UniProtKB/TrEMBL annotation:
Domain of life: Eukaryota
Top-level taxonomy: Eukaryota, Metazoa, Ecdysozoa, Arthropoda, Chelicerata
A GO cellular component entry from the record: mitochondrial inner membrane
Pfam family, one: Coa1
Entry keyword Membrane: yes
Transmembrane domains' residue ranges: 6-26
Protein name as it appears in the record: Uncharacterized protein
Gene name per UniProt: AVEN_231395_1
Length: 125
C-alpha cells in the first residue's frame, strides 16, 4: 500500500496548478496571436467598412479571440480557415475567413469573407 503524506498531496497539488496555469497561458497566447495576425486584422477592417454588416450587428463591432476548439479553424502554410467571434450592440456572430497563399509568399489572398449570424450568412468579399 502506498503511504500518502501531506507533503506528497501538497506536491501533487502544486504540480497540478503549474500544469493548469501553463496550459491556460499557452491557449490564451495562441488565441491572441491568431487574433492579432495581419490577415485577421485586415478582415476585421473590411467588416467595419461593410456597412450592411455593421448595421446588422449594431455599433460598436468588437473582435474577440477565436475559439481554438472550433472545427472550422484550420491554419497551414498555404491555407487558412478561421472563425473569429464578433459582437455588436444588436447581435453576435462569426467572421468566417478563407484565405490562401503560395508557400514562398507572406501575403494572404482572401478567397471569401463572410459574416455568419445564427443561420444567416452575409458575403463581405
Amino acid at each position: 500500500m502506498i503511504k500518502v503524506t501531506t507533503g506528497r498531496l501538497i506536491g501533487v497539488g502544486i504540480a497540478t496548478c503549474i500544469v493548469t496555469s501553463a496550459s491556460i497561458y499557452m491557449r490564451t497566447s495562441l488565441a491572441d496571436r491568431i487574433k492579432n495576425q495581419k490577415l485577421c486584422i485586415d478582415c476585421y477592417h473590411k467588416l467595419l467598412l461593410h456597412s450592411p454588416s455593421v448595421r446588422f450587428l449594431g455599433e460598436p463591432v468588437i473582435l474577440q479571440k477565436p475559439n481554438l476548439s472550433n472545427e472550422f479553424n484550420h491554419i497551414t502554410k498555404v491555407k487558412a480557415t478561421i472563425a473569429l467571434p464578433v459582437s455588436g450592440s444588436k447581435k453576435s456572430g462569426e467572421l468566417l475567413i478563407d484565405a490562401s497563399r503560395n508557400e514562398d509568399e507572406t501575403k494572404w489572398t482572401i478567397n471569401y469573407l463572410k459574416l455568419k449570424v445564427k443561420k444567416e450568412e452575409i458575403l463581405i468579399e
